[in-house]
Amino acid sequence: MSMQEKMKILVADDESEIRLTLEEIFAEDGYDVVCASDEKEILAGLTSDIDMAIIDIKLGSDNGIGVLKKIKAANPSLPVVMITGFGTVALAKEAFKLGAHDFLEKPLRLLQVRTCVRNALEGVQLRKKLNQKAVTGNGDLVLSSHAMKQLYIQASKLSYIKETVVITGPSGSGKDLLARHLHYNGPRSNGPFIATNAASMPLTLAEDELFGHEKGAFTGADKKREGCFERAHGGTLFIDEIADMDIQIQAKMLRVLENGIFSRLGSTANVKVDVRIVCATHKNIELLVKEGKFRHDLWYRISAFVLKVPGLAQRREDIIPLAEHFLMQICKELGMTKKFSRGARDLLQEIEYPGNVRELKNLITRLAVYADQDEITCDDIDAQREKRMESSNHNGDDESVVMYSDGNNAMMDFKIARIQFEKEFLRNALEKNTWNITATARAIGMAQSNLSRKLKELEIEK
Ligand SMILES: Nc1ncnc2c1ncn2[C@@H]1O[C@H](COP(=O)(O)OP(=O)(O)OP(=O)(O)O)[C@@H](O)[C@H]1O
Ligand SMILES: [Mg+2]
Q1: Does 230 map to a domain?
Q2: If you measure from the C-alpha of residue 253 to the centroid of ligand 2, how many angstroms do you get, rounded to a whole number?
């Protein structure tokens, strides 16, 4: 983070005059200012990467102390200065216990305000640097672009609070990964991470999946079954494709979100759970809300924290770091060493990836497996891309067809991709050795028994 980057201060007061005065002072001093007049606006402001907050202890009908608690839970290191006035001494003491950084007494005095802010911001810069390092230091994630770094800093903050988060972004952009980050980075990381998908499930099945059932709830329900909500107790429930959730289930969701209570199918007894919910979708829910296809009240309830993952086209500077990362990963796994030629690197940078990171990952995996030399060239890339075109033209049951012809389909994950590569790789090797198992095994450095087992497993026959 450069020193020139402006520090950002959140100013929250229900009196517009105080907000305006502080905003003016801080703008003059070269800070960015976000203003808020109530709790909702403050919590929303938290996501815009502020460096400190100044909050009136009396916030109209909202309680400044309550807000302080939430902020501290979300971001323990954020300095929060409380504005106190006559008759709020007791509250001020409580705020101090809760970790308020300092106090500003009304009537506010310019010098006092400036000193207080300067003190509070000391050290924030350094912490920012460390924070960023910690985030980028995560071995599984490539975060090169500014957009992704910011997104992960935001997510890291949100991982400490219980509020629902909605992750939006095109297919294959990394929504899943971000959801896991929210869980494993926060205080719930020792609890379960349960993932489910709300799309295209018939009503009863979806209810059963989420809420579970009692014994005898329906024909075939021969024992009690816990749903995702119960299994996620103490942890995180990740609901993918939330936009496609059945409208009747949405009503039930709303109830769980409001008080953590639901009942299993075939029972009226309330079950209470402590679950943090993270949702994802590649659809534009706001549009669906307008069209009446998604409940307005549910959207309102879950949309305070929305994380938008940009597609790869919006952050092309991530392409090469991601490509290098995937190549290294698969080389390690397959015990080989490969690298990209300079031309290959340029070409990778130019290509469009409608399937986003997933598509790039698939391409790199194919390259790692198929390229003949240690250096992956433009020709290798062209060959793999041609193959891709061919396979999306013919209509086989090849998994890659699903992936490449329909960027929205999430079925093609790494495992499926690998199985497919193995199949093609072994088939090639067998062809080259006229289907002689002993010769093939020797050629690819595999024990003959292993090869035979593999062929059976993958159902490879001449
Ligand atoms: N920043 C990243 N660093 C490393 N790997 C990534 C990154 N982003 C995505 N990936 C990888 O790309 C693939 C697709 O990511 P993910 O499954 O999270 O996408 P998604 O947005 O959930 O897709 P879909 O909309 O299809 O569900 C995964 O294999 C994931 O590990
Ligand atoms: Mg996903």
Answers
A1: yes
A2: 20
- For the chain, give the mean pLDDT: 84
Our CA angle for 343, 344, 348, nearest 5°, is: 120
SS3 (DSSP) at 406: coil
- 356 CB within 6 A, ligand 1: no
Indicate whether 218 and 97 sit together in one domain.
Answer: no
Q: What is the pTM of this model?
A: 0.60
Tell me the β-bridge partners of 306.
166
Query: Under 8 Å CB-to-CB from 56, ≥6 apart: which residues?
Result: 12, 13, 14, 15, 18, 64, 82, 83
1 within domain boundaries: no
Least confident of 133-137, 222-226, 310-314: 133-137
Q: Render pLDDT for 363-399 as a digit per residue (tens, 0 to 9).
A: 999 899 888 889 999 999 999 887 766 655 443 333 3
- Count of the separate structural domains present in the chain: 3
Q: Provide the β-strand partners of residue 166.
A: 279, 306
Mutate to test the pocket of ligand 1, among 138, 140, 145, 176 (most ligand atoms within 8 A of CB): 176
